[in-house]
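To whoever is covering the structure queue this week,

Two jobs came back overnight. Logging them here so there's a record in the thread.

Job A:
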Amino acid sequence: MKIAEQIKLYTTLWQETNALYEKWAKKHGLSYYELLVILSLADKSACKQKDICQVWQLPKQTVHTILKAFVQHGWVELTPCEDDRRNKTIRLTPIGEKNICAIAGELQRCERAVWKKLGAERANALIEYTRRYNQYFQEAGLNEDT
């Protein structure tokens, strides 16, 4: 297989993976971006909007809009940070803890089943090759010299 074909196939598979997560989110009444925010909130008891933006590379306005909706659902509370009053700490409410952790838990069960099916050797290889791909891409495409 030629390099151009490999690139096209890899890109197609990458897009397919993203589409699967988007489809999973939609099946649960969520947008893909809402799912990403939920995963961040389930991972920490308290965090900041800028943390979520950095982890998922999402625009601030997108995360702000999602959090505003989650406040309306009663899932989160936003409180000013003590160290920087411009930022707000996001805390799960009891109902948010229940709903957000249930959604994240269901996705994680699905993911664990996939990784278990892959087996340790293939899973480790996937991680290693993805790490190398990202490293080589950064070296080839993001260096200031290129």
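Job B:
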Amino acid sequence: MKDYFNPNATYPEKYFLPWFWMHRCLFLTIARAVEKHDEWFKLRRYASGEISASPLMKCVAAVRVLTYGCWADAIIDYVRIGEDSIL
């Protein structure tokens, strides 16, 4: 989140395009639409009380897998979401 999406992001906009193959504003538009359309992408609390991964990070994982055709376990360290959630 802090690398690309916070107001004072670690990396400026010019680094977003080569990493995600789209502009940040397009990515955010897609992420908002997906969150409205699919319940799984919404932020929620598990039965254990733990909060799920943010909708934005779930979209980051989905885009990375779809864009690069990589395995879910190849991006676990980057997005910090479990493999089952990425799949």
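Note for Job B: Residues 13-86 form one domain.

Please reply-all if you pick these up so we don't duplicate work.
Q.
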